[in-house]
Description:
The complex is a heterodimer of chains A (298) and B (100). With 298 residues, chain A is of the alpha+beta class. Chain A has 8 helices and 11 strands. In chain A, α2 packs antiparallel against α3. Chain B has a single domain (2-97), classed as Multidrug-efflux Transporter Regulator, Chain: A, Domain 2 (Orthogonal Bundle). In chain B, strands 1-3-2 form a 3-stranded antiparallel sheet.
Amino acid sequence: xxxxxxxxxxxxxxxxxxxxxxxxxxxxARKNHPDLNPGNEEANKKFQxxxxxxxxxxxxxxxxxxxxxxxxxxxxxxxxxxxxxQRQYQSQGxxxxxxxxxxxxxxxxxxxxxxxxxxxGGGRSSRQSPFKGQDYNAELQxxxxxxxxxxxxxxxxxxxxxxxxxxxxxxxxxKIKLSGYGAAGANGGPPGDLYxxxxxxxxxxxxxxxxxxYVQEDVNLYTALLGGExxxxxxxxxxxxxxxxxxxxxxTLRLKGKGFPVYKKENQFGxxxxxxxxxLPTNLNAEQKxxxxxxxxx
Amino acid sequence: xKNNLISIEDICVFHKIEIGFVQSLExxxxxxxxxxxxxxxxxxDELTKLEHYIRLHRELEINLEGLxxxxxxxxxxxxxxxxxxxxxxxxxYYKHFNLH
Lengths: 298, 100
């Protein structure tokens, strides 16, 4: 547990007036408020520190105690004094000087251990207003082909089992909101939300670009030259494709509507592109070499 | 449909806000309300937005003009983040196929 310099957090000096503290708090809060920094964990953490610093420094009694014992808070003698003061604080009740906390993210547990050891659980202002619970952020890893179909998955969120439907066509990095799956609200407020970010793993065979899928498929020299057929695996099953005579290497074939499903648009799909990779024969035997030589002289 | 609506009056009592604040947010186009039999309702989806504006207004003392500007800028940030995600996915595609 480390000593926390609340003055440094608010970027003020030790002689700062109550007005200076208020101004500094507002300045820092405007920069780091979670509503202005969605998804920014660092800003969220900083905002908690700013609130904690403000909670202490804006209350003359707490500030006095912090100034007196803050740096040497680990000394036993001072602990004793703190506890005595703590009882006094608890009997005093609310400081009544704090701002309401953001979206319920400030339960007692969100204050640092340092704060708790200095002021105890009852040392902070009690907030009676109803607040929405804290929002949670989580990541969910999917294989590319998992994202191809709408399916259900069971997640464990904060110890609770949540069964969610993942719509076909979700993209890597896409974030969805699951209302009410965040932390419980305070004082009768509604629960927070769960923001789920999808991380889609690369697939060895299929490459996705938007709603289109790209595949590289080998074709031997003879089929490329003379034409033929090839059975190709697609996300929806096998398809038989015709290969035109004299197909050049890297020729790309488009299968319309055989690509990825478009997110939340029923029966709409991207395209599937198949690029023919012409493979030259290796380890030619004497007869093959002779035939190729003949061919080259024609 | 009605199950997804909550009356503005209830919200104002719950959050201890003036009804005029909600009306002003609507005038600025920041939230959308629904009127059924002379009672004004808010959709649950809009409630999150309203609470977001209440917090910014109360905690940072941002006025309606400021909220309007913030909403616009946050929308731009969100669009840019989506574009970054899209571009990252594109880069990933080219990396794997070694295409230029």
